[in-house]
Amino acid sequence: MHVMPEKIIIADDHPLFRQALLIALKEQFNTTQWLEAETVESLSDCLVKNTDVDLLLLDLNIPGAHGFDHLIRIRKQYPDIPVVVISAYSDETIIGKAMQHGASGFVPKSESVPTIITAINKVLSGQLWVPGSFEKAQETVSNVADEAIAKLTVQEYRILMMFSEGLLNKQIGDKLCVAEATVKAHASAIFRKLNVRNRTQAAMMLGQLDVADYSDNLKE
């Protein structure tokens, strides 16, 4: 599915990479407003002025950042803005940590433009995206996810599905006709049963499974 975002920020300190990426992406996202940042400070200013941004493409190593600290701060300050990490690194440990810290996607700079576009569209539609090599490595933990998700009640499972769609607590409450506080209580139970800390990790665990296999086997 091709989603047309209104506004995207590219945060990378290499002008040539930014320009090359912009040229490539503008062909697909021709109505999108593109914003650029090359340091943590300029990115912070950009986010303050553009809280309605649809997506942030973030290089973890922009000047002023230290490891994953800036990604963590952005996710806390702007939880509704999805972040796709675009990095020169493709190590499985780094990808895993980025996703655990709230990234919605991780794209190595070595990937092709069509792959980057696919990743952006996946994230804009509320899904997560990681390289195929990382997904393959994660297959070994699918049995753990299977057993954990089987512990969810029907209502918890529905809420988990809505988490994976990117819905907020209030939106989930409206759909299920329950109070937002009730959704939060269910979320806490989901995180505990799945042994995760946040929505992103829960959605990642769901993504490891063929969800159709579980829809008829949940406990009431």
- SS-based class: alpha/beta
Work out the strand percent: 5-15%
Q: Can you tell me the overall shape?
A: globular
Strand order of the largest sheet: 2-1-3-4-5
- The amount of helix comes to 40-55%
Q: Could you tell me the radius of gyration in angstroms?
A: 18 Å
Descriptive tags:
220 residues, alpha/beta, 5-stranded parallel β-sheet
How are the elements arranged and paired?
Layout: E1 7-11, H1 15-26, E2 33-37, H2 40-49, E3 55-58, H3 69-77, E4 83-87, H4 92-100, E5 105-108, H5 113-124, H6 132-138, H7 142-149, H8 154-164, H9 169-176, H10 180-194, H11 199-207
Parallel strand pairs: 1-2, 1-3, 3-4, 4-5
Written description of the protein model:
By secondary structure, the chain is an alpha/beta fold. 50% of the residues lie in helices and 10% in strands. The chain contains 11 helices and 5 strands, in the order βαβαβαβαβααααααα. It has helices at 15-26, 40-49, 69-77, 92-100, 113-124, 132-138, 142-149, 154-164, 169-176, 180-194, 199-207, and strands at residues 7-11, 33-37, 55-58, 83-87, 105-108. The protein has a 5-stranded parallel β-sheet with strand order 2-1-3-4-5, sandwiched between helices. Helix 1 links the parallel strand 1 and strand 2. The protein is globular, with a radius of gyration of 18 Å. It starts with 6 loop residues before the first strand and ends in a 13-residue tail after the last helix. Mean pLDDT is 84; it is low at 210-220.
Concise structural overview:
This protein has 220 residues and is α/β, with parallel strands linked by helices.
